[in-house]
Amino acid sequence: MCSTEKKPLFRDLTAEDPEPEVTEIESLCVNCLENGMTRLLLTRIPHYKNVVLMSFSCEHCGYQNNEIQPGGAIAEFGIRWKLRVEEPSDLNRQVVKSDFTRVYIPELEFEIPANSQKGEVTTVEGLIARAIAGLTQDQEIRRTEHPDAAEQIDGFVAKLQALKELETPWTLELEDTSGNTFVENPDAPKKDPRCDSTEFKRTTDQDHKLGIFTRQERRSDMCLPVNNGTQEPIAGSITPADPSQGCYERLAADEVLQFSTNCPDCNAPADTNMKITKIPHFKEVVIMATVCDSCGHRTNEVKSGGGIEEKGVRFEVRIAGKEDFSRDILKSETCSMSIPELEVEVGGRALGGRFTTAEGVIRGCIEQLADAPSLHGDAPVPSKGNLQKFLEKLEEVLEGKRQITLILDDPAGNSYVQNLSDDLTVYDDGVKVTHYERSFDQNEELGLNDMKTEGYEQDA
Q1: CA distance 404 to 436
Q2: Cβ–Cβ < 8 Å for 32, 60
Q3: Which of 45, 51, 39 lies closest to 12, judged by CA?
Q4: Which pLDDT band, with edges at 50, 70 and 90, does 9 fall under?
Q5: N or C, fewer C-beta in 10 Å, the chain?
Q6: pTM over 0.70
Q7: Alpha helices per DSSP H over 188-277
Q8: CA–CA gap between residue 122 and residue 113 (Å, rounded)
Q9: Percent of the residues in the chain that have a pLDDT greater than 90, as a whole number
């Protein structure tokens, strides 16, 4: 009797699954031109994302090569990491680096351009070690044929070696246009004291290098110029539908829409249900829910149905008793969250957009942190004890043994906290609401500084 159990495409490496599915492909060895073997393993890094691990080995010459490729979609934004390496523990931080990552050390004006190395899972010390290995690869030949160049390289390698030994503090900067680079925080769940990450909007050229094109660009590629200077669609190409054939209000207001997608956990085919609903005394929102039949993963996400508000909003929600757990909360993707009593702060995309309760927000934190890489495996990690203690404190909050203040800060103003007061014009004592003017950096992150709402017709 054959088993019909569906297994996820990307699976955790656990004792319950001792024999993961490894794909073996016979491929050419670039060193000796004989045939070697490439092994592919689809797995996922907890608290990060799905990845494809590739390992090549040649039994003829002994050549080996390992690399990592992201197994999911390209992130919506690029990401920049800036790490101040001041302590020996910083050299042991895990780094997930993609093909599109640019590495830069300003103290030495040393740069490893994007697409010059394959993606890998390494450490900060491993990045320096790989750079040293690359620079010293052909030094013996250089000392014979180009002694001056070899001497200069030896001097620079000595400076890199000093970075490994941490003779003086230095800075590591990583910039990844695909958004698939990650630097470990050993002090998690607290805010990293020496590492900052910022997201940025990609330029058109950067999108094109990643293979991303807008509909307008694709449409122009599918058109042929005619004599009068206009363009006509190529026969058989897809053209935009007539707007009169359907509209947002008529198609989506009173029904649940369904579209095919991939499971965010195992990447298996799944269906996402989408519904537009209105939150009383707030605005319309789009609720999306995905259930995967392969791995059983369930996820729900909330998107604002309106635009960005004129001002940002900050909620301070007191959670002191069981009645506070039932308070409805809408947290958008742009809303950051912090708990001063526990010294924790997370960005907007940590929990994503969700419509839940105060209890649901705390349980969501526990579920995400329970998958943190420092809580799995046998390797000693400094943050393992800190995370375990933090999870215990969150459990105490759910049990009513600890009071906290949940601070939600949304520059876009698209978050909402339920008012339990009978007078809906005034919030109850458990919530403090502050509306504020956004800073330039906040507007820049929301893409408002470059937005032109008047006179754009002439530019078009």
Answers
A1: 23
A2: yes
A3: 45
A4: low
A5: N
A6: no
A7: 204-209, 215-221, 248-252
A8: 17
A9: 11
